[in-house]
Design brief:
single chain; alpha+beta; Multidrug-efflux Transporter Regulator, Chain: A, Domain 2; elongated
Amino acid sequence: MVDIPDRDLLTIGAFAARARLSAKALRLYDRLGLLSPAYVDEATGYRYYRAGQVEPARLVAMLRQLDMPLARIAEVVAAGDGPTAAELLGAYWADVEARVAGQRTLAEYLRGRLSGRSSEMYRKFAVETVDVPEQVVITEKRHTLADELPTWIGAALGRLEEAARECGGVAGVPYVAYHAEVSMESDGPAEACVPVADEAAARAWAERWGSPLVERSRELGGGWAWETAVRVEPARRLAYTRITKAQVAHPQILAAFEAVEEWMAARGLAAAGPCRELYFADWGAAGADDPVCDVAFPVS
């Protein structure tokens, strides 16, 4: 308890009127740990506030209108008025806008499917085939949900491309293969793959660094555990469609996969391996409308 002279205190009713909030809201903020009274009378349980708590109380109310999580509200309030609080709010709102943009895109995608316009969406993708020769690939496999996927793909391909220097260099287009569905409920696994030129050097690299990498990944947190491997991928024919950087985002990319599947079904072709995304461009330098990725299925 804080012992403050009566003349410096406001009753909860007077404080609520000044802050333009209800006494019920103030009790809730106290219970949530967002704004505690300056003093609580032990005998009566009456709550008293300082006049200086009016602005923090109003701030809490406004932040709750933004659906800000309690922990982040506490951070903003603790920062007080100033650039730090503004930066915390800005970071939160950027997250909100990114989430809403993704939800908007998903809603548009689902609206197209539910309205029976799937074929119209698929016609936007040109599907072709390409023959890929036998390749030696070094790989990193991990169970991941859709929201973690972009960060992991960039990190995994970066690690493998660095390792490829010890394996004769990169000898083909890096790609990510999906051995099972990756969504917000299903975690794959997904496998990042980089073709390399020297199989013997690749196997020596895996023997030297494979196990330590797995152990190191577990130190970073169970959700980031991965497995490394080297294998020889047989020659394959791929049915694929080329997409832009903007189209790589989920769920736009689902339409590209479905377009290739529809094209295959129309020609009596069956998938002969996991679907994949081949990243042939410099992701950082590419613009939203630049082609960066081939969405592909191996076909028999």
